[in-house]
Amino acid sequence: MNVFKSIESCLDAQRASVTISESAPVFVPGTKDEAFLLVHGWSASPESVRFLTKHLADAEFGVLVPVLPGHGTDALDQVRFGPVDWFNAAREALELLCEKYSKVHVLGVSMGGSIALQLAALETERVTSTITVNAPVAFDDPGFAEAVLSGPADAPLPGWSAPMFMGDAVPEISYQDRRRKSAADLLSVCTLARELLPRIEVPLLVLQSKSDTIVSPKNADIIYANASSKRKEIGWLTHSFHCAQLDIDRSRIAELALEFASCCE
Asked: In 3-state terms, the chain is what percent helix, strand and coil (to 5)?
């Protein structure tokens, strides 16, 4: 019997919902009794963390990257889902990994980092450690909030622009036509994560790009100051903007994550 049958069954259901083939979920069993759950960001997909997936898998860890509901399809589909759906999808993936591995580390990128913080707060018995990369808990951007509220819920959100890179530009599958309702859901995810910070006790590594123009670096300080973890660290990234997992810092992120995970009991 395939011991990973339950994981594959879950991923088969996700694959059936994805219409952008390159956005499909990813699972690499690994050879260790230890795994990483990777959570992608808003409007992105598992494809956006492909470099991290490979680096962690090459270190023989199991790696699971689910597709959050409404992703891997189109922006209108994303409007059908929100914070609770995204959290529950990540929690289901965590539960499946915990059935097969003795330790599970959660690594989230951008909004995925906010969801990782929620898991750290509410799934303390299952999460061995949490690593966030440019995770927002406070945008502090009145203009963004105004844009969200200045039109119909399913109307396109103005102001989208291609991500910046310090290194060569790296393609990413991401919705360019983002909708106001989903942007409001993004803000809700951030607020929920911030409210839960005092409940986080698992080891926590907060990675933040100093030059991030989307998520202010002060978010790292907020997370660090309010989390209750006895072991918590901030790692500053100096060779990336917001999409650090695709930029020059991508190998450093994986290396720091592996180093941090290796020290977690």
From this structure: 45, 15, 45
